[in-house]
Design a protein that fits this description.
By secondary structure, this protein is of the alpha/beta class. It folds into two domains: about 10-215 and about 340-405, Rossmann fold; about 245-325, 2-Layer Sandwich (formyl-coa transferase, domain 3). It is about 35% helix and about 15% strand. The protein contains 16 helices and 13 strands. It has helices spanning about 20-30, 65-70, 85-95, 115-120, 145-155, 180-200, 210-215, 220-230, 265-270, 285-290, 295-305, 310-320, 330-335, 335-340, 385-390, 395-405, and strands spanning about 10, 30-35, 50-55, 60-65, 75-80, 100, 125-130, 205-210, 245-250, 255-260, 325, 345-350, 355-360. The chain has a six-stranded parallel beta sheet, with helices on both faces. Strand 3 (about 50-55) and strand 4 (about 60-65) form a beta hairpin. Helix 1 (about 20-30) crosses helix 6 and helix 6 packs across helix 7 (about 210-215). The radius of gyration is 25 Å and the shape is elongated. The protein starts with 8 loop residues before the first strand and ends with a helix.
Length: about 400
Amino acid sequence: MAGALSHIRVLDLSRILAGPWAGQILADLGADVIKVERPGAGDDTRSWGPPYLKDAAGEDTSTAAYFLCANRNKRSITVDMTRPEGQRLLQELAAQSDVVLENFKKDGLVRYGLDYASLKAINPRLVYCSITGFGQDGPYAARAGYDFLIQGLGGLMSITGHPDHEPGGGPMKVGVALTDILTGLYAANAVQAALAWRERSGQGQYIDLALLDVQVACLANQAMNYLGSGQVPGRLGNAHPNIVPYQDFPTDDGYMIVTVGNDGQFARLCEAAGRPELARDPRYATNKARVANRATLIPLLNKLTIQRSTADWIVTLEKVGVPCGPINTVADVFEDAQVKHRGLMVTMRHPDIGPIPQVASPFRLSETPVEYRSPPPLLGEHTDQVLASLLKLKPDEIDRLRQDGIV
Protein backbone atom coordinates (compact mmCIF):
# COMPACT_ATOMS: atom_id res chain seq x y z
CA MET A 1 0.00 0.00 0.00
CA ALA A 2 1.31 3.46 -0.89
CA GLY A 3 2.69 5.60 1.93
CA ALA A 4 0.71 8.51 3.35
CA LEU A 5 2.88 11.01 1.45
CA SER A 6 3.38 8.98 -1.73
CA HIS A 7 1.76 11.81 -3.71
CA ILE A 8 4.41 14.31 -2.57
CA ARG A 9 7.76 15.06 -4.20
CA VAL A 10 10.50 16.74 -2.17
CA LEU A 11 13.54 18.44 -3.68
CA ASP A 12 16.06 18.18 -0.85
CA LEU A 13 18.95 20.66 -1.15
CA SER A 14 19.98 20.17 2.48
CA ARG A 15 22.99 18.41 3.94
CA ILE A 16 24.51 17.31 7.26
CA LEU A 17 21.67 16.39 9.70
CA ALA A 18 18.71 18.69 10.43
CA GLY A 19 17.49 18.95 6.83
CA PRO A 20 18.29 15.35 5.87
CA TRP A 21 16.53 14.15 9.04
CA ALA A 22 13.38 16.00 7.97
CA GLY A 23 13.77 14.58 4.47
CA GLN A 24 14.09 11.03 5.78
CA ILE A 25 10.93 11.43 7.88
CA LEU A 26 9.01 12.55 4.79
CA ALA A 27 10.59 9.74 2.74
CA ASP A 28 9.68 7.14 5.35
CA LEU A 29 6.10 8.36 5.07
CA GLY A 30 6.19 7.69 1.35
CA ALA A 31 7.34 10.95 -0.24
CA ASP A 32 9.62 10.85 -3.28
CA VAL A 33 12.65 12.67 -1.86
CA ILE A 34 15.26 13.71 -4.41
CA LYS A 35 18.51 14.46 -2.60
CA VAL A 36 20.66 16.96 -4.50
CA GLU A 37 24.40 16.59 -3.89
CA ARG A 38 27.63 18.11 -5.13
CA PRO A 39 29.25 16.19 -8.00
CA GLY A 40 32.25 14.22 -6.81
CA ALA A 41 31.79 15.08 -3.13
CA GLY A 42 28.19 14.82 -2.03
CA ASP A 43 26.78 15.44 1.43
CA ASP A 44 29.59 16.22 3.87
CA THR A 45 28.52 13.37 6.14
CA ARG A 46 29.41 10.77 3.51
CA SER A 47 32.99 11.19 4.74
CA TRP A 48 32.31 11.83 8.44
CA GLY A 49 34.07 8.77 9.79
CA PRO A 50 35.30 6.52 11.12
CA PRO A 51 33.34 4.40 11.58
CA TYR A 52 32.77 3.42 7.98
CA LEU A 53 30.51 0.55 7.07
CA LYS A 54 32.37 -2.66 6.36
CA ASP A 55 31.90 -4.84 3.31
CA ALA A 56 31.41 -8.62 3.26
CA ALA A 57 35.17 -9.11 3.64
CA GLY A 58 35.26 -6.95 6.77
CA GLU A 59 37.07 -4.08 5.06
CA ASP A 60 36.12 -0.42 5.49
CA THR A 61 34.11 1.05 2.63
CA SER A 62 33.94 4.75 1.79
CA THR A 63 30.45 4.99 3.31
CA ALA A 64 30.38 6.65 6.73
CA ALA A 65 27.90 5.32 9.26
CA TYR A 66 26.87 8.94 9.95
CA PHE A 67 25.48 9.39 6.43
CA LEU A 68 23.46 6.20 6.73
CA CYS A 69 21.47 7.49 9.72
CA ALA A 70 19.48 10.12 7.82
CA ASN A 71 19.26 9.31 4.11
CA ARG A 72 17.30 6.12 3.40
CA ASN A 73 14.34 6.01 1.02
CA LYS A 74 15.81 8.88 -1.03
CA ARG A 75 17.05 9.24 -4.58
CA SER A 76 20.45 10.90 -5.00
CA ILE A 77 21.29 13.14 -7.93
CA THR A 78 24.43 15.20 -8.44
CA VAL A 79 24.03 18.74 -9.78
CA ASP A 80 26.47 21.65 -9.65
CA MET A 81 24.20 24.48 -8.55
CA THR A 82 26.98 27.04 -9.01
CA ARG A 83 26.72 26.63 -12.80
CA PRO A 84 23.88 28.25 -14.76
CA GLU A 85 22.94 24.98 -16.44
CA GLY A 86 22.83 23.23 -13.06
CA GLN A 87 20.59 25.99 -11.73
CA ARG A 88 18.26 25.53 -14.67
CA LEU A 89 17.98 21.81 -13.98
CA LEU A 90 17.11 22.41 -10.33
CA GLN A 91 14.59 25.10 -11.23
CA GLU A 92 12.88 22.67 -13.57
CA LEU A 93 12.82 20.02 -10.87
CA ALA A 94 11.40 22.55 -8.37
CA ALA A 95 8.62 23.27 -10.86
CA GLN A 96 7.61 19.60 -10.54
CA SER A 97 8.05 19.35 -6.77
CA ASP A 98 5.76 19.99 -3.85
CA VAL A 99 8.44 20.79 -1.28
CA VAL A 100 11.95 22.23 -1.22
CA LEU A 101 14.18 21.66 1.82
CA GLU A 102 17.37 23.68 2.22
CA ASN A 103 19.74 24.62 5.02
CA PHE A 104 22.05 27.18 3.45
CA LYS A 105 22.92 30.41 5.24
CA LYS A 106 20.48 33.29 4.93
CA ASP A 107 20.19 34.37 1.29
CA GLY A 108 22.74 31.72 0.34
CA LEU A 109 20.66 30.48 -2.59
CA VAL A 110 19.63 33.87 -4.00
CA ARG A 111 22.62 34.11 -6.34
CA TYR A 112 21.72 30.71 -7.79
CA GLY A 113 18.09 31.56 -8.39
CA LEU A 114 17.07 28.82 -5.96
CA ASP A 115 15.66 30.99 -3.18
CA TYR A 116 11.97 31.00 -2.32
CA ALA A 117 11.08 34.13 -4.31
CA SER A 118 12.68 32.75 -7.47
CA LEU A 119 11.12 29.30 -7.17
CA LYS A 120 7.72 30.61 -6.10
CA ALA A 121 7.57 32.51 -9.39
CA ILE A 122 8.00 29.17 -11.14
CA ASN A 123 5.77 27.13 -8.80
CA PRO A 124 3.32 29.12 -6.63
CA ARG A 125 2.16 25.92 -4.88
CA LEU A 126 5.65 25.19 -3.58
CA VAL A 127 6.21 24.65 0.15
CA TYR A 128 9.74 25.91 0.79
CA CYS A 129 11.43 25.15 4.13
CA SER A 130 14.63 27.02 5.05
CA ILE A 131 16.61 25.72 8.03
CA THR A 132 19.27 28.05 9.45
CA GLY A 133 21.02 28.51 12.76
CA PHE A 134 19.29 31.76 13.70
CA GLY A 135 16.46 32.43 11.28
CA GLN A 136 15.98 34.85 8.43
CA ASP A 137 16.01 38.05 10.51
CA GLY A 138 17.53 39.48 13.66
CA PRO A 139 21.10 40.43 14.66
CA TYR A 140 22.42 36.85 14.32
CA ALA A 141 20.71 36.01 11.01
CA ALA A 142 23.93 36.03 8.96
CA ARG A 143 25.79 33.72 11.33
CA ALA A 144 26.39 30.04 10.71
CA GLY A 145 24.76 27.82 13.32
CA TYR A 146 25.90 24.40 14.45
CA ASP A 147 24.22 22.03 16.88
CA PHE A 148 26.93 22.22 19.58
CA LEU A 149 26.97 26.01 19.42
CA ILE A 150 23.18 26.17 19.69
CA GLN A 151 23.07 23.72 22.61
CA GLY A 152 25.25 26.20 24.48
CA LEU A 153 23.65 29.45 23.29
CA GLY A 154 20.13 28.06 23.62
CA GLY A 155 20.49 27.15 27.29
CA LEU A 156 20.53 23.34 27.05
CA MET A 157 24.10 22.98 28.31
CA SER A 158 23.35 25.16 31.33
CA ILE A 159 20.93 22.48 32.58
CA THR A 160 22.89 19.42 31.40
CA GLY A 161 25.72 17.92 33.43
CA HIS A 162 26.70 17.83 37.08
CA PRO A 163 26.73 20.99 39.22
CA ASP A 164 30.01 22.89 39.28
CA HIS A 165 30.77 21.91 42.89
CA GLU A 166 30.54 18.17 42.17
CA PRO A 167 33.27 15.96 40.66
CA GLY A 168 33.07 16.22 36.88
CA GLY A 169 30.86 19.27 37.23
CA GLY A 170 30.34 21.75 34.41
CA PRO A 171 28.27 22.21 31.28
CA MET A 172 27.77 19.19 29.04
CA LYS A 173 26.25 18.74 25.60
CA VAL A 174 23.80 15.96 24.90
CA GLY A 175 25.42 12.84 23.41
CA VAL A 176 23.75 13.22 19.99
CA ALA A 177 23.16 16.35 17.91
CA LEU A 178 19.79 16.74 19.57
CA THR A 179 19.06 20.27 18.37
CA ASP A 180 19.55 19.17 14.76
CA ILE A 181 17.28 16.17 15.31
CA LEU A 182 14.57 18.26 16.96
CA THR A 183 14.81 20.82 14.16
CA GLY A 184 14.35 18.04 11.62
CA LEU A 185 11.25 16.88 13.48
CA TYR A 186 9.83 20.41 13.58
CA ALA A 187 10.63 20.86 9.89
CA ALA A 188 8.77 17.69 8.90
CA ASN A 189 5.77 18.79 10.97
CA ALA A 190 5.80 22.30 9.49
CA VAL A 191 6.04 20.95 5.95
CA GLN A 192 3.06 18.65 6.47
CA ALA A 193 1.05 21.50 8.03
CA ALA A 194 1.83 23.69 4.99
CA LEU A 195 0.83 20.89 2.65
CA ALA A 196 -2.45 20.42 4.52
CA TRP A 197 -3.17 24.15 4.21
CA ARG A 198 -2.30 24.05 0.51
CA GLU A 199 -4.98 21.41 0.01
CA ARG A 200 -7.55 23.97 1.18
CA SER A 201 -6.07 27.18 -0.20
CA GLY A 202 -4.16 26.06 -3.27
CA GLN A 203 -1.18 28.12 -2.12
CA GLY A 204 2.30 27.17 -1.08
CA GLN A 205 4.24 29.03 1.59
CA TYR A 206 7.64 29.74 3.09
CA ILE A 207 8.84 28.15 6.34
CA ASP A 208 11.57 29.94 8.30
CA LEU A 209 12.94 27.44 10.82
CA ALA A 210 15.87 28.23 13.12
CA LEU A 211 17.90 25.87 15.29
CA LEU A 212 17.98 28.49 18.05
CA ASP A 213 14.20 28.88 18.03
CA VAL A 214 13.77 25.11 18.25
CA GLN A 215 16.26 24.77 21.09
CA VAL A 216 14.60 27.51 23.14
CA ALA A 217 11.16 25.99 22.50
CA CYS A 218 12.44 22.60 23.65
CA LEU A 219 13.61 23.92 27.02
CA ALA A 220 9.99 23.06 27.84
CA ASN A 221 9.34 22.87 31.61
CA GLN A 222 12.78 24.34 32.38
CA ALA A 223 11.91 27.46 30.42
CA MET A 224 8.61 27.75 32.24
CA ASN A 225 10.30 27.09 35.58
CA TYR A 226 12.32 30.24 34.94
CA LEU A 227 9.57 32.34 33.36
CA GLY A 228 7.15 31.41 36.14
CA SER A 229 9.48 31.90 39.08
CA GLY A 230 12.35 34.12 37.98
CA GLN A 231 14.78 31.51 39.31
CA VAL A 232 17.42 30.37 36.85
CA PRO A 233 17.53 26.55 36.56
CA GLY A 234 20.91 24.95 37.13
CA ARG A 235 22.57 21.65 36.42
CA LEU A 236 21.31 18.77 38.55
CA GLY A 237 23.18 15.87 37.00
CA ASN A 238 20.59 13.15 36.50
CA ALA A 239 18.10 14.59 38.98
CA HIS A 240 14.82 16.25 38.03
CA PRO A 241 14.08 19.87 38.98
CA ASN A 242 10.41 19.23 39.76
CA ILE A 243 10.15 15.58 40.86
CA VAL A 244 11.95 13.60 43.60
CA PRO A 245 13.13 10.85 43.49
CA TYR A 246 13.61 10.88 39.74
CA GLN A 247 17.24 10.06 38.95
CA ASP A 248 19.94 7.40 38.90
CA PHE A 249 20.77 5.41 42.02
CA PRO A 250 23.80 3.20 42.78
CA THR A 251 23.35 -0.53 43.08
CA ASP A 252 25.85 -3.15 44.17
CA ASP A 253 26.80 -3.82 40.53
CA GLY A 254 26.23 -0.48 38.81
CA TYR A 255 23.35 1.98 38.56
CA MET A 256 19.62 2.03 37.91
CA ILE A 257 17.04 4.67 37.07
CA VAL A 258 14.08 5.28 39.38
CA THR A 259 11.35 7.63 38.16
CA VAL A 260 8.81 8.16 40.90
CA GLY A 261 5.94 10.21 39.49
CA ASN A 262 3.56 10.39 42.46
CA ASP A 263 3.29 9.88 46.20
CA GLY A 264 1.81 6.39 45.88
CA GLN A 265 4.80 5.20 43.89
CA PHE A 266 7.12 6.71 46.50
CA ALA A 267 5.33 4.82 49.27
CA ARG A 268 5.72 1.56 47.34
CA LEU A 269 9.40 2.30 46.76
CA CYS A 270 9.95 2.80 50.48
CA GLU A 271 8.06 -0.39 51.28
CA ALA A 272 10.15 -2.38 48.80
CA ALA A 273 13.34 -0.89 50.23
CA GLY A 274 12.38 -1.88 53.78
CA ARG A 275 11.87 1.70 55.00
CA PRO A 276 8.09 2.29 54.81
CA GLU A 277 8.30 4.99 57.48
CA LEU A 278 10.05 7.33 55.02
CA ALA A 279 6.80 7.73 53.11
CA ARG A 280 5.07 8.88 56.30
CA ASP A 281 7.80 11.33 57.27
CA PRO A 282 6.45 14.89 56.74
CA ARG A 283 9.73 15.83 55.07
CA TYR A 284 9.15 13.24 52.33
CA ALA A 285 5.42 12.43 52.29
CA THR A 286 4.61 14.67 49.31
CA ASN A 287 6.50 15.51 46.16
CA LYS A 288 6.64 19.19 47.16
CA ALA A 289 8.27 18.19 50.45
CA ARG A 290 10.67 15.80 48.72
CA VAL A 291 11.81 18.48 46.29
CA ALA A 292 12.49 20.79 49.23
CA ASN A 293 14.33 18.07 51.15
CA ARG A 294 16.10 16.18 48.38
CA ALA A 295 19.48 16.88 50.00
CA THR A 296 18.64 14.60 52.93
CA LEU A 297 16.39 12.09 51.13
CA ILE A 298 18.69 11.09 48.28
CA PRO A 299 21.62 10.01 50.52
CA LEU A 300 19.17 7.86 52.52
CA LEU A 301 17.93 6.17 49.37
CA ASN A 302 21.48 5.71 48.04
CA LYS A 303 22.36 3.69 51.16
CA LEU A 304 19.40 1.41 50.49
CA THR A 305 19.74 0.91 46.73
CA ILE A 306 23.43 0.02 46.87
CA GLN A 307 22.65 -3.11 48.87
CA ARG A 308 21.13 -5.03 45.92
CA SER A 309 21.88 -5.63 42.25
CA THR A 310 20.32 -3.65 39.44
CA ALA A 311 18.47 -6.73 38.12
CA ASP A 312 17.13 -7.56 41.58
CA TRP A 313 15.85 -4.03 42.08
CA ILE A 314 14.18 -3.92 38.68
CA VAL A 315 12.31 -7.18 39.30
CA THR A 316 11.27 -6.03 42.78
CA LEU A 317 10.14 -2.54 41.80
CA GLU A 318 8.34 -3.59 38.65
CA LYS A 319 6.23 -5.99 40.72
CA VAL A 320 4.96 -3.09 42.85
CA GLY A 321 4.53 -0.62 39.98
CA VAL A 322 7.50 1.67 40.60
CA PRO A 323 8.95 2.79 37.25
CA CYS A 324 12.61 1.83 36.99
CA GLY A 325 15.18 0.53 34.55
CA PRO A 326 18.83 -0.06 33.72
CA ILE A 327 21.27 2.36 32.10
CA ASN A 328 22.00 0.54 28.86
CA THR A 329 24.90 0.92 26.50
CA VAL A 330 23.95 1.31 22.85
CA ALA A 331 24.85 -2.37 22.41
CA ASP A 332 22.52 -3.26 25.28
CA VAL A 333 19.73 -1.28 23.65
CA PHE A 334 19.67 -3.45 20.56
CA GLU A 335 19.70 -6.62 22.68
CA ASP A 336 16.75 -5.43 24.78
CA ALA A 337 13.68 -7.66 24.52
CA GLN A 338 11.26 -4.80 23.91
CA VAL A 339 13.53 -3.17 21.32
CA LYS A 340 13.78 -6.49 19.50
CA HIS A 341 10.03 -7.07 19.72
CA ARG A 342 9.32 -3.63 18.23
CA GLY A 343 11.76 -4.30 15.39
CA LEU A 344 13.83 -1.18 15.97
CA MET A 345 16.71 -2.50 13.90
CA VAL A 346 16.00 -3.34 10.29
CA THR A 347 18.27 -4.56 7.52
CA MET A 348 18.38 -3.10 4.02
CA ARG A 349 20.44 -4.22 1.03
CA HIS A 350 23.02 -1.68 -0.14
CA PRO A 351 24.03 -1.97 -3.81
CA ASP A 352 27.76 -1.90 -3.03
CA ILE A 353 28.01 -3.27 0.50
CA GLY A 354 25.21 -5.79 0.77
CA PRO A 355 23.04 -5.99 3.90
CA ILE A 356 23.31 -2.88 6.09
CA PRO A 357 21.66 -2.11 9.44
CA GLN A 358 19.22 0.74 9.92
CA VAL A 359 17.37 2.09 12.94
CA ALA A 360 13.67 1.71 12.25
CA SER A 361 11.25 4.59 12.07
CA PRO A 362 9.19 4.97 15.27
CA PHE A 363 6.04 5.62 13.22
CA ARG A 364 3.43 2.89 13.50
CA LEU A 365 0.59 3.78 11.11
CA SER A 366 -2.18 1.22 10.76
CA GLU A 367 -3.23 2.03 7.17
CA THR A 368 -0.07 3.53 5.64
CA PRO A 369 2.86 1.85 7.41
CA VAL A 370 6.43 2.95 6.83
CA GLU A 371 8.15 1.03 4.06
CA TYR A 372 11.90 0.58 3.80
CA ARG A 373 12.02 0.96 0.04
CA SER A 374 15.66 1.77 -0.61
CA PRO A 375 18.87 2.12 1.39
CA PRO A 376 20.80 5.39 1.68
CA PRO A 377 21.79 5.99 -1.95
CA LEU A 378 25.15 5.98 -3.64
CA LEU A 379 26.33 9.43 -4.66
CA GLY A 380 24.44 10.36 -7.81
CA GLU A 381 22.90 6.90 -8.05
CA HIS A 382 19.64 8.20 -9.51
CA THR A 383 20.85 11.15 -11.59
CA ASP A 384 20.11 9.56 -14.95
CA GLN A 385 16.79 8.15 -13.75
CA VAL A 386 15.51 11.48 -12.42
CA LEU A 387 16.69 13.60 -15.34
CA ALA A 388 15.23 11.18 -17.84
CA SER A 389 11.89 10.58 -16.13
CA LEU A 390 11.11 14.07 -14.87
CA LEU A 391 12.95 16.37 -17.28
CA LYS A 392 12.73 14.05 -20.31
CA LEU A 393 16.44 14.36 -21.06
CA LYS A 394 17.90 11.87 -23.52
CA PRO A 395 20.96 9.72 -22.68
CA ASP A 396 23.24 11.80 -24.92
CA GLU A 397 22.07 15.01 -23.21
CA ILE A 398 22.81 13.53 -19.78
CA ASP A 399 26.21 12.32 -21.00
CA ARG A 400 27.05 15.84 -22.18
CA LEU A 401 26.03 17.29 -18.79
CA ARG A 402 28.26 14.76 -17.09
CA GLN A 403 31.21 15.49 -19.38
CA ASP A 404 30.78 19.21 -18.67
CA GLY A 405 30.75 18.59 -14.90
CA ILE A 406 27.18 19.84 -14.46
CA VAL A 407 25.98 16.51 -13.02
